[in-house]
Design brief:
The chain is α+β, with helices and mostly antiparallel strands and 295 residues long. It has two domains: 68 residues, no CATH class; 215 residues, Fumarylacetoacetate hydrolase, domain 2 (Alpha-Beta Complex). The chain is built from seven helices and 18 strands. The strands form three sheets. Strands 1, 2, 3, 4, 5, 6, 7, 10, 11, 13 and 16 form an eleven-stranded mixed β-sheet that branches. Strands 8-18-17-14-15 form a five-stranded mixed β-sheet, with no helix packed on it. Strands 9-12 form a two-stranded antiparallel ribbon.
């Protein structure tokens, strides 16, 4: 199923998208279904059977033109958990760039690099990325596959990791490179307002036949800049979940941004930082396309 959060008549609602057909307003059909995805994910076992029965063309209320699609989780339960340098070619391009800070002597990490993005950085599809929040003028894009956790979990082994996943989405880990470099914990450079576009939907895990074959493509002004598949990750999704849950509890609605392929702006010489008027599209089939403009 394809879950969306949308706005209609100034009211925020949760729905199902039937691809190329329209949107089902779940609350209109069953008032007991939670009207935000954080609550729905937390109580999904209670509503899963009912929601599946509603996922039919005859239940469509709106076309996509009738509503405003928001980030599927406009306010995450916690900061987004992010993985740095998780594709080998990207790790190498960062190390060779003018921003090759940290682990300069060894571009390929031997342990996952984990950092956070603030919840206040989240925006939805077609919202603007605002360069005014980066005084250094070094804003970069990073197309990524996002994992949404469905069960509160601790000490999960890799072989059981997929059991705790609710679904998948698209994330643009927009970054101020100089702020990232200046503040070694990365948090400030990763968290300016509007610097975490997410969406357009969360696709439940049962819709994904082979997670290793999920392909990330990033286009800037229709120029293909990034291409990578999940199979190329240094640390795959089950290993990341095992690593995280060894020491911390993941909760329902947690979001993991799994890393970006090569082709980011700092990988060019000179760097190709984002500028006002740029358009960014990140495509991951079968999730869809996350599109945002830069202002």
């Amino acid at each position: 199923m394809r879950f969306v959060t949308f706005e209609k008549n100034k009211k925020i609602k949760v729905g199902l998208e039937i691809l190329d057909k329209g949107i089902i307003d779940l609350k209109k059909i069953d008032k007991e279904i939670p009207n935000n995805l954080n609550s729905l994910i937390k109580n999904y076992s209670q509503f899963e059977k009912k929601i599946k029965s509603l996922n039919k063309i005859e239940n469509i209320h709106y076309t996509n033109l009738d509503i405003n699609i928001l980030s599927p989780i406009p306010v995450p339960v916690r900061d987004i958990i992010c993985v740095g340098k998780n594709y080998a070619d990207h790790a190498k391009e960062v190390q060779k760039s003018d921003f090759g800070f940290l682990e300069r002597e060894n571009s390929i990490p031997n342990k996952p690099i984990i950092f956070n993005k603030a919840t206040t950085s989240v925006i939805g599809p077609n919202d603007n990325i605002e360069l005014k929040n980066d005084e250094t003028n070094t804003t970069d894009y990073e197309g990524e596959l996002g994992v949404v956790i469905g069960k509160k979990s601790k000490n999960i082994k890799s072989e059981n990791a997929l059991d705790i996943i609710f679904g998948y989405t698209i994330i643009n880990d927009v970054t101020s490179r100089k702020l990232q470099n200046n503040h070694k914990q990365w948090f400030i450079g990763k968290s300016p307002d509007t610097y975490c576009p997410m969406g357009p939907v969360i696709v439940t895990k049962d819709e994904i036949k082979n997670i290793d074959m999920m392909k990330v493509e990033t286009f800037v002004n229709n120029e293909l800049r990034q291409t990578g598949i999940a199979e190329d990750m240094i640390f795959d999704i089950p290993f990341l979940i095992e690593t995280l849950t060894k020491s911390m509890t993941l909760v329902e609605g947690d979001i993991i941004a799994t890393g970006t392929p090569s082709g980011v702006g700092i990988g060019f010489k000179p760097p190709k930082f984002l500028k006002a008027g740029d358009n960014i599209k990140i495509k991951i089939d079968p999730i869809g396309v996350l599109e945002n403009n830069v202002v």
